[in-house]
């Protein structure tokens, strides 16, 4: 679909709304503390500890990247299109219509291990002659690193939890 001016305006309003919610949560005098969980395991795991502050309500990938400097090192909850392929796992603002799908728009790398039970409930490439991928709509909770994490350059979320998105 062409980049229509009304669509850009609606997207801009959504980003402003999300940033307002983030700044309101950040200005709270005492953070909510949740029990910490074990850090993600696996070869892509970071040495960063699991987030201990409650990340608040979920926002979209694009809003996270707009607020990257303010959110660096903080616990976040982000909704998006999960795609894991030969290039690693990432959370994207949208999916491109192809098979297997590809990331579209803003994206952030993911570091850590996605639980097998979650992976099993996502879509998988069914044709072995195509690039193998796993994808679907998820809500990711973890620690955001604007400059990357161990072994990954660029914005990264060190995974704490990955859940299927409602809907």
Q: Describe it for me?
A:
It is a single chain. The chain is an alpha+beta fold. The protein has one domain (5-164). 23% of the residues lie in helices and 35% in strands. It starts with a helix and ends with a strand.
Number of helices: 4
Q: Supply the helix-strand structural class.
A: alpha+beta
What are the secondary-structure elements, in order, as H or E?
Answer: HEHHEEEHEEEEE
Give the termini distance in whole angstroms.
23 Å
Share in helix: 10-25%
Question: How much β-strand is present in the residues?
Answer: 35-45%
Q: Provide the residue-averaged pLDDT.
A: 76
Task: Count all strands and give the number.
Answer: 9
- The side-by-side strand order for the widest beta sheet comes to 2-3-4-9-6
- Structural shape: globular
The tally of structural domains comes to: 1
Q: Which consecutive residue ranges, at least 5 long each, have pLDDT under 50?
A: 3-49
Largest sheet features: 5 strands, mixed, barrel
Radius of gyration: 16 Å
Describe the secondary-structure layout.
Elements: H1 5-26, E1 59-60, H2 61-66, H3 68-71, E2 75-85, E3 88-96, E4 102-111, H4 116-121, E5 123-124, E6 134-145, E7 148-149, E8 152-153, E9 156-164
Parallel strand pairs: 1-2, 4-9
Antiparallel strand pairs: 2-3, 2-6, 3-4, 5-6, 6-9, 7-8
Give a quick set of tags describing it.
disordered N terminus, 23% helix, 167 residues, two-stranded antiparallel ribbon, 5-stranded mixed barrel
């Amino acid at each position: 679909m062409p980049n229509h001016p009304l669509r850009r305006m609606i997207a801009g309003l959504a980003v402003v709304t999300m940033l307002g919610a983030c700044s309101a949560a950040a200005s709270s005098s005492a953070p909510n503390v949740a029990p910490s969980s074990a850090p993600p395991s696996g070869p892509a795991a970071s040495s960063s500890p699991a987030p201990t502050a409650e990340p608040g309500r979920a926002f979209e990938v694009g809003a996270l990247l707009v607020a990257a400097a303010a959110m660096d090192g903080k616990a976040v909850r982000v909704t998006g299109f999960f795609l894991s392929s030969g290039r690693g796992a990432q959370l994207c603002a949208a999916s491109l219509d192809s098979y297997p799908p590809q990331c579209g728009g803003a994206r952030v790398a993911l570091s850590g291990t996605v639980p097998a039970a979650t992976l099993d409930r996502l879509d998988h490439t069914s044709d072995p002659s195509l690039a193998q991928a796993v994808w679907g709509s998820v809500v990711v909770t973890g620690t955001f690193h604007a400059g990357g994490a161990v072994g990954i350059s660029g914005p990264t979320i060190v995974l704490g939890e990955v859940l299927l998105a409602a809907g």
